[in-house]
Amino acid sequence: MIVAIEAIGCWGEGLHGWPTVQNILRGEASLCAESLKLPAPTSLPINEQRRASQIIRLAVLCAEEACQQTPYKPEDLPIIFASSNGDGFIINRILESLTTPGGAVSPSLFHNSVHNAPAGYWMIGHHSHQSAVSLGLHDETLPAALLKAAIEAHIEQRPVLFCIYDAPVPGSLGTARRTDHAFSCAFILTPGTNGALSLTLSFQEGKGEATPPPPLPDVMMNILRHNPAGHVLPLLYAIAHKRDCTLTLPYGENHLRLALAHANS
Hints:
globular; 10 helices; Ketoacyl_synth_N; Thiolase-like; alpha+beta; Beta-ketoacyl synthase chain length factor; 35% helix
């Protein structure tokens, strides 16, 4: 199955947009790890801007960057949003409240804690009535969600917005689930090979041979190793360097094979 990558969004700590990330991946700039204090997306109504957590902002800003590079309207795109951890910060606050005598959980914390909250804010902000899927599969979230998005683009013969995101989990949960840095990546996938970048996906039986990591900067290597969304970095590295590549992503007892090709190769 072949799809085209028509647009890319990328956000995180010190990673404010795909152009910045490309320069870092090419060794033309250094990553400046900044506090993840993201602005509320202006697409959201005022009340939702106030309520949107940092993980919601991370996902929505990243997805919007991808949309801004194409003629497609955000409200016309079906979406696949994916996260391994969900909103760990919000969940930790709820757990702290529940374990505190007399502690109360605010309604805004509760509705932000569900796994599909970022997708819901996206639909509200862009008045979308398209299909929306939220996926989470621990460390294999990337292959599961990318395969789902590619299949939908291929079968429905229409563009699909894919966005994967994860951030550190504070408190006791974080000691059991290490996640380094906040990171998100979004693609707009279209059927066929009409774009500058084509991606061939094939589901293979067996574990497959692990793909050696590219020579990433130290902080980004930590994202690759300790952030499930960061597993997309080898693909982004190849795109930034305009190189064709083949990658293997573990998927249960099997694996997903990705073959990236540039149109001018």
